[in-house]
Amino acid sequence: MEEKQQQKKKKNKYSIIVPTYNERLNIALIVYLIFKHLREVDFEIIVVDDGSPDGTQDIVKQLQQVYGEDRILLRARPRKLGLGTAYSHGLKHASGNFVVIMDADLSHHPKYLPSFIRKQMETGASIVTGTRYVTGGGVHGWNLMRKLTSRGANVLAQTLLWPGVSDLTGSFRRSVLEDVINSCVSKGYVFQMEMIVRASRKGYHIEEVPITFVDRVYGSSKLGGSEIVEYLKGLAYLLVAT
Amino acid sequence: MKHIIKILSLLVAITAFWIGLLETSVVPRSNAWLLPIYLIVSLGCYGLLMVGVGLMRFPTCPQEAGLLQKDIAEAKEFLKQQGVDVGCD
């Protein structure tokens, strides 16, 4: 059994797609942390940089010198083209049979990656997503207003969309499904919600693991009125389209 | 099937049931008239309750913030040694 798992581990390759825009420092930190926490796994990091003016790509090139150009791939695009297309762009260059997508801002800590991989192996799920709403998960640095909107948005989505997972936005998830990405049309963070909802409608097996979500500067992640409007529009779109 | 159609058919089913109640007068008509209002009010209560419970039980992780700062310091140290330019932020 042990041996079998070892073999399985060797066969799987994980492509980690990290979209960046002006993440000069963060991309270095995240690469270091990924290498620290994923020691026995075969993986590659695909950085999709949208022409950051702050020199993110120079840092990625320096990181390639340290870790090797076959482990860190820089697949830049000329200008800011959005999150959703960044994932499908990265996916085109991915050689792994599993894909991890994560934010570069360290709100998703790479130390949870092993638990994603373990969960997938235990359950054979097609998608593993992180959730902040269960024990072991959680947030830090959110004020009451932020928590309230997050909760309200979540209850609204649960009631209207019945997605079958407890956390719709802000998670890394892993999949073998180009299928799902290709049928998504939303932009920005509604895209993440659309991906999970579509996957659940298509009947894919989705599992969740607890993750924590830390604001590095207390209260820096704010939700303004325009984000709430965007969210509601996304919700309405998903109601009609899926 | 589109999701909105599922929800609409659920609504139609509830409306049909309500009209049935009105017609057959199993319950007094004056009570049956008020049922949709009860439904809306209880839906609202359910929503508020879920948000409230969720807020109260919102898991927080203050210890994670410290751990993250430690990880960042460690990463910066290592990367500096490797000659990666992480100086300015």
From TrEMBL, chain A:
Highest taxon, organism lineage: Eukaryota
Biological-process GO terms, alphabetical: dolichol-linked oligosaccharide biosynthetic process; GPI anchor biosynthetic process; protein O-linked glycosylation via mannose
Transmembrane segments: none
Keywords: Endoplasmic reticulum, Glycosyltransferase, Transferase
Record-linked Pfam families: Glycos_transf_2
EC nos: 2.4.1.83
Main localization (coarse): endoplasmic reticulum
Function: Transfers mannose from GDP-mannose to dolichol monophosphate to form dolichol phosphate mannose (Dol-P-Man) which is the mannosyl donor in pathways leading to N-glycosylation, glycosyl phosphatidylinositol membrane anchoring, and O-mannosylation of proteins.
Subunit structure: Component of the dolichol-phosphate mannose (DPM) synthase complex.
Protein name as it appears in the record: Dolichol-phosphate mannosyltransferase subunit 1
Organism: Stephania yunnanensis
Species lineage: Eukaryota, Viridiplantae, Streptophyta, Embryophyta, Tracheophyta
UniProtKB/TrEMBL annotation, chain B:
Organism, as annotated: Stephania cephalantha
GO CC, any one term: endoplasmic reticulum membrane
Location (main, coarse): endoplasmic reticulum
Keywords: Endoplasmic reticulum, Membrane, Transmembrane, Transmembrane helix
Cross-referenced InterPro entries: DPM3
Family: Belongs to the DPM3 family.
Membrane topology recorded in Swiss-Prot or TrEMBL: Multi-pass membrane protein
Protein name: Dolichol-phosphate mannosyltransferase subunit 3
Keyword Signal: no
Subunit organization: Component of the dolichol-phosphate mannose (DPM) synthase complex.
Residue intervals passing through the bilayer: 34-55
UniProt-listed GO biological process terms: GPI anchor biosynthetic process
Organism lineage: Eukaryota, Viridiplantae, Streptophyta, Embryophyta, Tracheophyta
Cell compartment(s), UniProt: Endoplasmic reticulum membrane
Function summary: Stabilizer subunit of the dolichol-phosphate mannose (DPM) synthase complex; tethers catalytic subunit to the ER.
Pfam families, alphabetized: DPM3 (PF08285)
Entry keyword Cytoplasm: no
Pathway noted in the entry: Protein modification; protein glycosylation
